[in-house]
């Protein structure tokens, strides 16, 4: 199997496994999210949802990191690598077409911002008014992300070719 094809072959099951985990994460929290559409969460519920948001973005970032590692054969380094990874995914590269649309990248930056906050805050700082929109939009965001990953995978170049121009 040619090298470029084997890169995509390694990436595909990794992405699918991670997407399955993300769907399981949202399914496990669905009753709480549904409740929060009607009644704001209490402290413990807000903490649980903050943890869900952190896991949610981490799963998405795992997929994007695998694109860089498996298909680009590179790593993203430095102090701003999380933001640079998102930006990089909107750019076509010699090895591949763009992974994300600019609009989805912008939305994912909101989740990245929360991830940073989560890692540096005490749980009593979690505020439903600030994080509620992210929580309530997780399913839609995951659907958009899944669709864009599926579109990306559909553009896998034939063995020995560069990225598709579609």
Shape: elongated
Radius of gyration: 17 Å
Total number of helices: 6
Residue share in helix: over 70%
Question: For the terminal residues, how far apart are their CA atoms?
Answer: 24 Å
Helix and strand composition category: mainly alpha
Total E-strand runs: 0
Q: How many individual domains?
A: 1
What portion of the residues fall into strands of 2 or more residues?
under 5%
- Uncertain residue segments: 161-166
Order of helices and strands: HHHHHH
Main pleated-sheet profile: none
Mean pLDDT: 90
Structure characterization notes:
The structure is a single chain. By secondary structure, the protein is mostly helical. The protein has one domain. The protein contains 6 helices and no strands. The chain has helices at about 5-35, 45-70, 80-90, 100-120, 130-135, 140-155. Helix 1 (about 5-35) runs antiparallel to helix 2 and helix 1 runs antiparallel to helix 6 (about 140-155). The protein is elongated and about 55 Å long. The two termini are about 25 Å apart.
Features:
mainly alpha, 70% helix
Compose a concise summary of this entry.
With 166 residues, this protein is mostly helical.
Task: Give the SSE layout.
Layout: H1 3-36, H2 43-71, H3 81-89, H4 102-120, H5 128-136, H6 138-154
Helix pairs in contact: 1-2, 1-6, 2-3, 2-4, 2-5, 3-4
